[in-house]
Structure formats: C-alpha cells, structure tokens
Amino acid sequence: MSKYKRKNKKPGHREGEVRAKKHLGQHFLTDENVAEKIAKTLSFSGYNNVLEIGPGMGVLTKFLLKQDAEVHVIEIDTESVTYLQENYAELQERIHQQDFLKYNLQEVFKEEAFAVIGNFPYNISTQIVFKVLEMKEQIPEFSGMFQKEVAQRICEKQGSKTYGILSVLVQAFYYAEYFFTVPPSVFNPPPKVDSGVLRLTRKEDFSIACDEKLFFRIVKTAFQQRRKTLRNSLKTFNLPDNIREDTIFGRRPEQLGFQEFINLTLKIQPYAI
C-alpha cells in the first residue's frame, strides 16, 4: 500500500497525492497546460541551472525537465520531498529539503548562474523576491506565479496607486513583464484570489550609481508614508534645509521612477550616517 494512502480522507483528496498544508501556504497547481506555459516563460539562455521553489508534486517540474538545463528543486515539505523522490528518479541528487529563505544556495550552485521559477506560496512570495534581489549577481532570470495583485505591483510603473517598494527595487535591476492571469479553479485547494505569472530578466548592466543599501533604505522609508511628500517622509535622514528645498522633495514616492530614486539617493548620500 502506498505511504500516501490516508484514513479519513478529506473530500477531493485522492490516494497517492500529497495533501496541501495550509500552514505552508500550499495550493497545488493541477492544470498541466498552465504549468507548461509557466515553464516556457524562462528563456533557458545564458545559464545552465534552474531552481524551482516549492515543486509540490512536480506538475511544473516535469516540463522543466524537458529543457536543456540542470533542474534543482527546493522543498520544505517532507511529504512532497518523498513524493518527488519516488516519482522523479532523474532528480534524486537535486532535491533539496530546505527552506529557500534560509538556505545558503551557494552550497548548491557555488558561483554559477541559475534561474529561479515556481508557483510561489502567497505568504512568502515577497520575501522570495527580496532574496532574489540579494542574489541578483547569480540570478539572470526569475519567473513564476504570485497572487495577482502582487505580480501586478512588481511590474507596475510610476504614478499608479499600486506602485510601491517592490516595483522600484525590482525594476532598478530587472525588466519586469506580467504575462497572464490564472484563475483559482486550476489549484487544489483553490485560493480565494486570482494568480498572476510574471518574468524578471536582469538588465545587462544591473549596477546602480549609488550606495545600494542606502537606496533600499530610502525607497522603503519613502513608501512607509506614501501619501506624504518626500520632504516629510524622509525627515528621519535629518537633511540640511538647503537640500530639502530641492524640488524632488516636494513630490510623493509613487511619482518617482527607479532612476529618480537613484538620483535622490545620490543627493542624500553625502549626508547619510
């Protein structure tokens, strides 16, 4: 008897399947057509390695394995890991039972480039993006599925009410493209909202002409009080009055593109502690 058979099965749960766990934010994609479309968002160009986050039962994995790349998967759920080990023999040495947010990926990839893809748990999707930004030197491409409003926010342009911290920080280093919307009906269990698939392609020159840590700090501080002008939201930087009189400080954060935030950081940099 398969170890996945369970007594007192919940409605909709079939024997031989991994049960989605609410505390892990799991919503398993069940539509293979959607999975194949997500796999095809990667170009598989300029890198040999692909890392899938949270593969579950491998509906996306099977399409990644058809590509000319070395596929690794990282999965925190023990039951899913066992399922993958039993059903994807070709992955055996490349299944990493780890927490993506805490794991040192250089243990796997050393200094090699790798793409990141996945059907990301809503509850940690923003943290995943921040970790990708930390490792941008090694990650030329990133794609996958988010809650729709988060995916749209990442790709949003300045001037929108949904434009925010993620929009600025991501777009400083990557080109962001929103591809398509996915309905709740293709998941088990279905989430309560639509999902959206995006791709981030790292810019050829992804360095910025200012202190990066200060840039991140300024963007985050500015959007914490997004309705205020920068003159008010950035008060904690204790800038001299003659600097604060610059016209850029009379604008609100959603009015600035990433390049203007870089210029703002350059103005503040000489006075930052």
- In the predicted model, the low-confidence regions spanning at least 5 consecutive residues are 1-15
Beta content: 15-25%
Number of E-state strands: 9
Q: Would you give the CATH topology of the largest domain?
A: Rossmann fold
Estimate the mean pLDDT confidence.
Answer: 91
- Give me the strand/helix succession: EHEHEHEHEHEHHEEEHHHH
- What general form does the structure show? elongated
CATH architecture label name of the largest domain: 3-Layer(aba) Sandwich
N-C termini distance: 64 Å
CATH homologous group name of the largest domain: Vaccinia Virus protein VP39
CA radius of gyration: 21 Å
Helix percentage range: 25-40%
The largest sheet is: 7 strands, mixed
Strand order of the largest sheet: 4-3-2-5-6-9-7
CATH class (first level) name of the largest domain: Alpha Beta
What does the secondary structure layout of this molecule look like, with pairings?
Elements: E1 28-29, H1 32-39, E2 49-53, H2 61-64, E3 70-74, H3 78-87, E4 95-96, H4 106-109, E5 114-119, H5 125-134, E6 141-147, H6 148-155, H7 165-173, E7 174-182, E8 187-188, E9 195-202, H8 212-224, H9 230-233, H10 241-244, H11 258-268
Parallel strand pairs: 2-3, 2-5, 3-4, 5-6
Antiparallel strand pairs: 1-8, 6-9, 7-9
Helix pairs in contact: 5-7
Keywords:
single chain, 273 residues, alpha/beta, Rossmann fold, Helicase, Ruva Protein, domain 3, 2 domains, seven-stranded mixed β-sheet, two-stranded antiparallel sheet, 11 helices, 9 strands, elongated, 16S rRNA (adenine(1518)-N(6)/adenine(1519)-N(6))-dimethyltransferase activity, RNA binding, SAM-dependent_MTases_sf
